[in-house]
Design brief:
Radius of gyration: 18 Å
Number of strands: 10
Number of helices: 12
Largest sheet: 8 strands, mixed
Length: about 300
């Protein structure tokens, strides 16, 4: 564990030197879905790897408390969770790193403000603020569906990637997710929404699903959505999950891997939102009751 933390410290020092020692702008992306079983956590892992392959330094924050999907997909057991930042544990020791060099932060059993005194909460906030010095992309894996806590995460983020599959029930659930989020927060407090249609049998199915969802959101919510990309059904994804090695590593030439690489390329071509990055996220999110909640 100490070797892993020291290796991470070394890499992060290099990034700080590349930035002249100044805090970097960190892009914060919440990833959500209207229902479970659409491949959200798997998407987060492979999306992060695709960004990493393009020179980015991503960090996954596992906010889907109680399920531990990220650590299972990466076959990496965290020794600490974000709650340990309130103790004498340093940021580098709390961040886990997979065998493929992908960093993630475990939400553990949840961090609530009423668990900690004021001094401990200040320490957690200061430690988390330092993430912006070391990672240029933070990907937040939210639990399926919407509640007050996940709405807080989303409102604090720079962007929201909403994952769905082409089935009518999944599109209906994704629309219901947007409607509930719309009722929870005014549009001017919410980030841009990027759609990803996963596990499509054909590209035409994916496009039609994206168009149906986008049309409904625009007509009934006056909310314009953007399509980030599509991922075609690929049996090799299931094989990669069973191996606990991401498909981008297990089968880099697979259909799913090529789709994921295209989505990462599409993402990097988008204009970066001006919402303050990670520190802006903490500023918007901190007044809420909890960082991590079981919902």
């Amino acid at each position: 564990m100490s070797d892993q933390a020291e290796s991470l410290r070394s890499k992060m020092r290099e990034r700080s030197m590349d930035n002249g020692g100044l805090p970097a702008k960190t892009r914060v992306i919440a990833v959500a879905s209207g229902k479970g079983g659409v491949g959200k956590s798997n998407f987060c892992v492979n999306f992060a790897l695709a960004l990493k392959a393009k020179g980015k330094t991503p960090l996954i924050v596992d906010a889907d408390v109680g399920f531990s999907n990220i650590e299972l997909l990466l076959n990496t057991r965290p020794f600490h969770t974000v709650l340990d930042l309130a103790k004498d544990v340093q940021l580098f020791d709390v961040i886990s790193t997979s065998p493929h060099g992908l960093s993630f932060l475990s939400g553990g059993s949840g961090l609530h403000s009423d668990m900690l005194d004021d001094a401990a909460m200040v320490r957690v906030k200061e430690q988390l603020a330092n993430l912006s010095n070391h990672f240029d992309t933070v990907i937040i894996d939210l639990g399926a569906g919407i509640n007050h806590q996940s709405a807080q995460w989303i409102a604090g983020s720079d962007e929201l990637i909403l994952l769905a599959t082409p089935e009518p029930t999944a599109i209906s659930d994704a629309y219901a997710f947007l409607k509930l989020l719309y009722e929870e927060r005014p549009l001017d407090e919410l980030p841009a929404v990027r759609l990803v249609i996963n596990r499509a049998l054909k590209l035409t199915d994916a496009r039609e699903a994206s168009e149906r969802l986008s049309a409904a959101a625009l007509r009934f919510l006056e909310w314009k959505l953007e399509t980030l990309g599509f991922i075609l059904e690929d049996d090799l994804v299931s094989q990669a999950v069973m191996r606990q090695v991401p498909v981008l590593i297990s089968f880099p030439n697979s259909t799913a891997s090529r789709c994921m690489e295209q989505i990462a390329a599409n993402f990097l071509r988008l204009n970066e939102p001006n919402r303050g990055g990670w520190r802006g996220f903490l500023h918007r999110f901190w007044p809420g009751k909890s960082f991590f909640s079981t919902g």
